[in-house]
Design goal:
This protein is mainly alpha-helical. The chain has a single domain, classed as 434 Repressor (Amino-terminal Domain) (Orthogonal Bundle), CATH 1.10.260. Helix 2 crosses helix 3. The longest helix is centred in the first third of the chain and has 23 residues. The chain is globular, with a radius of gyration of 16 Å. It starts with a helix and ends in a 6-residue tail after the last helix.
Length: 114
Amino acid sequence: MVGLEREHSWLARFPQILRAERLKAAFTREELADQIGVPIEEVGPWEEGVALPPLPEFFSLAEVFGWPIPRAIVEKKLVGSEGSTPASLKKRPPPRAGRPSPDAARRLGLPPTR
């Protein structure tokens, strides 16, 4: 039971964790959406606790923020019964390309955008 309680408390805190990580990385919601390749409208509900990100987007968030992902989750969720990757995860669109905001460019040491 302890594992379930710990998992529930983490899920209950996910909106606060996501927002804190985004702010620590100095990303706007739009910049985070660009980083993981989703429309900006998806990030707000995750931070507000209205919805949780689908698993592919969760993995993208984990990559951006350096969150560890337990091997058991990867094996159970990403590998089908025949040992293949589910079709929904085989081909993901690349992240949207765009210019970073002037603040993001400055923080990243990039030349200013015009």
